[in-house]
Structure formats: structure tokens, C-alpha cells
Amino acid sequence: MEREKMEKDQGESRRRSMRHATPPGENHKFVKNDQYFTVCIYAFVLVVACAVAIKAVVSFDQTKAFLGGLVRAIGPFLIALLIAYVLNPFVKAMNRLIRRIWPKLKQNGSMVISMIIVYLLALGMIITLLVFVLPEIVRNLADLVNQIPTAYQALLDFLASMQEQFPTADFSSIITMLKDTQSDLTAGLKDIAADLIPVLYTASVSVVSWVANFLIALIVSVYMLYGKKSLKRLIKIVLYGFIPKDKVAGVKTVIVECNQIFSRYLVSKMMDSFLVGVLCGVFMSILQIPYALLISVVMAIVNMIPYFGPFIGAIPGFVIILCVDPIKAVIFAILILCLQQFDSLVMEPKIVGNFTGIKPIWIIFAVTIGGKFFGVAGMFLGVPVMATMTYLAELYMRRRLAKKGISMEEIQ
Predict the structure, then answer these.
(1) Which of 222, 336, 345, 369 is the most exposed, having the fewest neighbouring CB atoms within 10 Å of its CB?
(2) What are phi and psi of 389, to 5 degrees?
(3) Is residue 310 within 8 Å of 303, Cβ to Cβ?
(4) Residue 81 burial (CB < 10 Å; 0-12/13-18/19+)?
């Protein structure tokens, strides 16, 4: 009885399978396989990425031109991002101060007031530089250009007197080199004068374009600062979308730490350089050293470059002052030496601190490599970038060693 029942069931199953079987000549139904589909997507993306990389390397000039055009197109947004990034710590500090003074004020209201105050202070500083500092710098440059013939003649007279006092010495090669330099300089100035109108037109267009881009960047930076909560939310969405949920907290911690290293160093170094420029200008004015404003502005800018910055600013300043007044040049050299020691021993540790946590050899390496590939901007940003990379590398090695049951403190 049971055997007959089993044969009946098998027959029924055979008839059912034949009933649902695909007739000859018809295609099989496509069955979706997520695993194979993912592999195909990854393979396609890899092939496209390799093709784009090969094309970029083979047609490097076209790639460079494309990237240059892209940077120029998004230039205002990059400037806006930089403005928002630099002003964000000041806005946060002002917001905390306003909340402490006026605790009942809503968060949005205190944020708007903080942004208005910080932007007004920043614009006031820019207007002050344009109205008072820039004309004085232009006058210093004009005076310096007018001093060149006098300094040149004084140098020739000095070499002639040295030739009379030391007849055995030969200064003729130096005098010939100076005369050739003067001829080349005169010819170059004539060429510049001949092309002055096109140069002025191009410069005027560039200035107008720069001012327009700056105004656009300023407006965009306001929206970036005010809408930073939306930006943070977007970043969180991306993190939760691509990273496992249990690892999101660790990734957020790493991002926050990298941001603090970068922003603290950048903002604090800017404040330190500003104070160095102010002190340099004040002491040069007290000591009546010429071109005080021009040289102090240069010193403030180049002080952003660690180690090399003071020498980059001091050597040209010393040479310029030497052509006008040698005694003042010696006083200037002593002043810069004392100011640099005061900055490195007192001001910089108080203001900048040790946010980077990297050794001096790596700072020099970062400045050198950054300047080689990215110019002045690379020298400015090389140190915080190196500090961020060092932090990420140390974090990665700690995790690698932790899997082996070893801590970095145990390794001597």
C-alpha cells in the first residue's frame, strides 16, 4: 500500500515537472544573482578607472589643462570653503560668548549674530589693509625703485675705492658683471614699457575677476557656515551608507581629530604670524628702520612657513636696507634674530602649541616636498597635511599591533 502511494506521488511529481518544463526553443528565465552582479560592477568600475588613469598619464598636457580649467571654474567655491574653514573657530568662540552673555537667546539667533560680528571684523581688517596699508606699501616700493640708481652708483664707488686701496686685488669682473646687469635691467624695463598697455589691461581684467570671485566666495562662505549642520548631516548619511554601522563611531572620531589637527594649526599659525608682523613693524618704526611696513608685511606672510619662513623674509629685507643704510641693516638683522627667538620660545608655544605632534625633521620634509610640488601654498599647508597623515598612520599601526597583542608603548 505504501509502495503504491510512493509510486503515485513520484508520477504526480514527474507530470508536474513536465508541465512546467521549458518547451524546446524557448529561452530560460533570467535568475538574478546578487553576488555575480556585484563582481561585474566592481570589474566594470576597475576597468573604467584604469582606462581613465592611462588616458590621463598618456595625455598629461590635456589632463593638466583640464584640471586647471576645473580649478578655475570652482575657484570661488574653494576660496569660500577656505574662508568658512578659517572663520569657523572664531564664529564658534563668538557664539559661546554670546550664549554666555545672553543665555535665553535661541541657537539660530546667536549663530547669526556671531557670524555678523566675525564677518564685520574680517571685512574691517581687509578694508583697513586696503585703505591704509596697501598705499604705504606701494609708496615703499616706489621709493625702493627710485633708490636703485643711487645704490648702484654707491656700490660702484665702493668697489672703485677698494680697488685703489688694494691694487693687487682685481674687482674688474665684479664691476663688469654689475654693468652687464644694469644693461640687461634697462633693456628689460624698455620691453616692459613697450608692452605696458596690454599688461595693464590684463592686470585690470584679472583684478576685476578676482574681486568678483572673492565677493562670490564671501557670499558662499556665509551659506556654508550657516548651513554646516546640513553638511554634517550629509557626511553622516554618506558614512552610514558606505561603512558598517558598528564602525561609524570610530570613523567619526578619526575625522574630528584630523579636522582639529588641521584647523587648530592653521588658525593658530595665522594668529602667530600676524603678531610677528605687528611686532616687527612696531620695532622697525621705533628704531627708524626704512621700509618698515613693507618688510613687516612680508615677514608676517612668510612666517607661516616653519623654519624657512623667517630667513625667506629677513634676507631680502636685509639686502634692501643694506643698500640704503648699512648700520640700519645690522640693527634690522639683530632685531629679526631677537624677534624670531622670542616667537619660537615664547609666542609660538603659547599660541600654536604642539597640535601637530611631529618631529622637526618631518616638518622640514613636509615644507620641502610641499614647496617642490605645490609652491608657496604647499609650504604653508605641508605641515598640517603631514601631521594629519602621521596621525592616520600611527592609528593604523596601533590597530595592526593590537591584533598581535602588542602596544606601541612596549616597543622601544
Answers:
(1) 345
(2) -65, -40
(3) yes
(4) middle
CA distance 5 to 193: 111
DSSP state string for 245-288 = HHHHHHHHHHHHHHHHHHHHHHHHHHHHHHHHHHHHHHHHHHTT
Residues in the chain: 412
Would you say 106 and 114 are in contact if contact means Cβ atoms under 8 Å apart? Answer: no
295 within 8 A of 303, measured Cβ to Cβ = no
Q: What is the pLDDT of residues 267-321, one digit of tens each?
A: 888 888 888 888 998 998 898 888 888 888 888 888 887 777 778 888 888 888 8
How far apart are alpha carbons 87 and 242 in whole angstroms?
31
Count of beta carbons in the 10 Å neighbourhood of residue 79: 18
* Burial (CB count within 10 angstroms: exposed 0-12, middle 13-18, buried 19+), residue 284: buried
Angstrom distance (rounded) from CA 294 to CA 280: 11
pTM: 0.67
- Using alpha carbons only, give the angle 332, 141, 147 rounded to the nearest 5 degrees: 75
Residue-by-residue DSSP string for 178-220? HHHHHHHHHHHHHHHHHTHHHHHHHHHHHHHHHHHHHHHHHHH
d(CA 200, CA 197): 5
The CA distance from 305 to 370, in Å, is 11
Q: Could you tell me if 335 and 324 are in contact, meaning their C-beta atoms sit under 8 angstroms apart? A: no
> CA geometry: angle at 73 spanning 72 and 76, to 5°?
80
pLDDT for 14-52, tens place per residue?
555 554 444 554 445 555 556 666 778 878 888 888 888
Which residues have CB under 8 Å from 152's CB, separation 6+? 178, 182
Cell matching residue 19 = 508541465
Cβ-based burial of 46 (10 A; exposed 0-12, middle 13-18, buried ≥19): exposed
Q: Which grid cell sits at 246? A: 558598528
Cα distance between the two ends of the chain: 83
Q: Are 381 and 269 in contact (CB under 8 A)?
A: no
What backbone torsions phi and psi does residue 25 show, to the nearest 5 degrees? 95, -15
163 Cβ neighbours under 8 A, 6+ residues apart: 169, 171
Output Rg (C-alpha) for the chain, integer angstroms: 33
